[in-house]
């Protein structure tokens, strides 16, 4: 028994000596493993199972050989363990008798990259193998913000060094697109060694603006376009379209935001069923979400004037559509009037003038009511009132327009 221990210790020591000699020699049979930054990673290693196992995981660093993890006398031996690996390593001890010497390394950092040696020995003999570790912090989110016609695309916490490219759909002639001339990209490294990338360019108003960030084998794209502004009023309903097909809705997550920051609602499909969540601040305004992703709003006040963004996202891509909603207090933009407006533009102007004067004459104008969140019954009465007014105005309007039209 004592001889057994001595022989094992001797074997351990001899092994260390051999290691020191051979560790710098390159080995064609390396196993390559890509580990994800901050996650756990398994470094594979196996040997012919037998008794009296000795396992050393080692890493040549500069000219020294760091001990990552050692195991002999049927137990972990961590006295020599290199400082950066303290508390982060484990063997699968129950698997060692089966010839599995794989190492679990927790909380991967960029310093963990490199070549590791796995030395194993049993009474039958010894073996060495190498594992090459690459670390990746894949691009996760590509954020696009639009402000004063300058579009900013950014992504953070990436490794290896990312690339960012802009394009448009339909494609624009690069030499004439002011966007590509003003394009400027900057990259910085954070304290963990990860890259942050940011780029700005002139917004191409009439096209879809596309920003793509690539790192390693991972590519993520975010697109942004702006559609024509919409009009709303405190007393009307507004439907802001997102222009999504039903199939897109089932594969993408949909988020409506206000002024690009405040989340209004999120919708996603889980097990083929739509799940919608409306933010507490918006339950009063959000009426519904249509099958095509349109946001239906009502009971709007001036504070709801701003940019509404519809964001469709999968793990790979994000598509943003911005729509400016202008709130015009007191103006009736109901379907009935819209039809009249469409039939004669001249009549519309006159109708608007007439409505304004009528509303001024009426001291209980809908403008004040619209702001004060009145009970439903009053609201219904009010709507009937308005409808009666409209009918009267409609007649007046068309009567006037026939006079105007020769
Ligand atoms: C290498 O090891 C020597 C002696 O153990 C130590 O003095 C030196 O600082 C080490 N170098 C590095 C880069 O770890
Ligand atoms: C060793 O065991 C671990 C944990 O069960 C497993 O993930 C790994 O695939 C095994 N490796 C080999 C070479 O059997
Ligand atoms: C943006 O500018 C950088 C350097 O100024 C250039 O390398 C890159 O190709 C430009 N990208 C586009 C899409 O024009
Ligand atoms: C909506 O989508 C259809 C088909 O995908 C497209 O032809 C149309 O131009 C889109 N409309 C807007 C306003 O983007």
Automatic annotation (TrEMBL):
What the entry lists under SMART domains is as follows: IG (SM00409), IGc2 (SM00408), IGv (SM00406)
Look up the signal peptide feature and give its range: 1-28
Official protein name in the record: V-set domain-containing T-cell activation inhibitor 1 isoform X1
Q: Where are the residues of the annotated region Disordered?
A: 366-406
Residues crossing the lipid bilayer are 337-359
- Which InterPro entries does this one have? Ig-like_dom, Ig-like_dom_sf, Ig-like_fold, Ig_sub, Ig_sub2, Ig_V-set, T-cell_Activation_Regulation
Which segments constitute the Ig-like domain? 27-134, 231-328
Keyword tags: Cell membrane, Disulfide bond, Glycoprotein, Immunoglobulin domain, Membrane, Receptor, Signal, Transmembrane, Transmembrane helix
Give the chief site where it resides.
Answer: membrane
The record's listing under PANTHER family reads: BUTYROPHILIN SUBFAMILY 2 MEMBER A2-LIKE-RELATED, T-LYMPHOCYTE ACTIVATION ANTIGEN
Q: Which residues form a coiled coil?
A: none
Q: Which domain of life is it from?
A: Eukaryota
- How does the entry describe its membrane topology? Single-pass type I membrane protein
Q: Where in the cell is it found?
A: Cell membrane
Q: Does the keyword Signal apply?
A: yes
């Amino acid at each position: 028994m004592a001889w057994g221990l001595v022989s094992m210790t001797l074997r351990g020591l001899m092994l260390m000596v051999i290691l020191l000699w051979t560790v710098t020699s390159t080995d064609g049979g390396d196993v390559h493993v890509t580990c994800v930054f901050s996650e756990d990673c398994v470094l594979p290693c196996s040997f012919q199972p037998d008794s009296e196992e000795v396992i050393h995981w080692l890493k040549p660093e500069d000219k020294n050989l760091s001990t990552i993890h050692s195991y002999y006398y049927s137990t972990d031996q961590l006295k020599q363990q290199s400082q950066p690996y303290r508390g982060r390593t484990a063997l699968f001890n129950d698997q060692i008798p089966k010839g599995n010497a794989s190492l679990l390394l927790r909380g991967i950092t960029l310093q963990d990259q490199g070549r590791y040696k796995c030395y194993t020995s049993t009474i039958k003999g010894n073996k060495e193998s190498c594992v090459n570790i690459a670390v990746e912090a894949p691009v996760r989110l590509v954020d696009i913000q639009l402000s004063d016609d300058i579009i900013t695309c950014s992504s953070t916490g990436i490794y290896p060094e990312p690339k960012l490219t802009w394009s448009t759909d339909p494609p624009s002639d690069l030499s004439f697109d002011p966007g590509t001339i003003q394009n400027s990209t900057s990259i910085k490294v954070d304290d963990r060694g990860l890259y942050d990338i940011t780029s700005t360019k002139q917004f191409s108003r009439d096209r879809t603006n596309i920003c793509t960030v690539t790192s390693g084998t991972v590519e993520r794209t975010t697109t942004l376009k702006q559609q024509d502004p919409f009009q709303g009023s405190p007393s009307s309903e507004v439907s802001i379209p997102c222009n999504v097909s039903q199939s897109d809705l089932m594969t993408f997550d949909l988020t409506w935001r206000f002024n690009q920051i405040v989340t209004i609602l999120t919708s996603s499909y889980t097990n083929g069923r739509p799940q919608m969540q409306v933010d507490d601040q918006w339950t009063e305004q959000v009426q519904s979400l249509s099958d095509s992703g349109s946001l239906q709003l009502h009971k709007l006040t001036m504070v709801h004037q701003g940019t509404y963004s519809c964001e469709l996202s999968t793990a790979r891509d994000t598509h943003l559509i911005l729509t400016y909603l202008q709130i015009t207090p007191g103006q009736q933009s109901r379907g009935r009037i819209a039809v009249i407006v469409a039939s004669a533009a001249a009549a519309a102007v006159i109708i608007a003038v007439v409505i304004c004067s009528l509303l001024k004459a009426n001291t209980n104008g809908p403008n004040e009511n619209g702001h004060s969140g009145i009970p439903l019954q009053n609201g219904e009465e009010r709507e009937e009132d308005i409808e009666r007014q409209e009918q009267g105005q409609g007649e007046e309007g068309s009567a006037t327009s026939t006079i105007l039209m020769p």
